[in-house]
Amino acid sequence: MNFQIRQAVKANVQGQSADELENVVEDAIKRGEEHLLPGLGVFLEAWWNHADQQKRQNFMQDLAKAMA
């Protein structure tokens, strides 16, 4: 994923509420289109960079369960 994708995704959702962001995520998942995956990756990266170690550990445990 190149840096231009990160900037474009961030610009497209800048200033959106939590509910609006949730709708973006749910819509991307519902559509199931491969080209939407990089945008979800940008969301994950942003969250990861702002999460503390405990939140990251909890997420990784939940992710491991979901991927089992």
What does this structure look like?
This is Small, acid-soluble spore protein I. Keywords: Sporulation. Belongs to the SspI family. By secondary structure, this protein is an all-alpha fold. It has four helices and no strands. The protein is globular, with a radius of gyration of 13 Å. The protein has one domain. The model has no long low-confidence stretch (mean pLDDT 95). Helix 1 crosses helix 3.
Entry summary:
With 68 residues, the chain is mainly alpha-helical. Helix content is 79%, strand content 0%.
- Overall spatial form: globular
Helix proportion range: over 70%
Please indicate the percent range of residues in DSSP E strands (runs of 2 or more).
Answer: under 5%
By secondary-structure content and strand pairing, the structural class works out as mainly alpha
Task: Profile the largest sheet.
Answer: none
Low-confidence stretches: none
Helix count equals 4
Order of helices and strands: HHHH
Oligomer: single chain
How many domains, in number, for the residues? Answer: 1
Protein name: Small, acid-soluble spore protein I
Pfam families: SSPI (PF14098)
Family: Belongs to the SspI family.
Subcellular location: Spore core
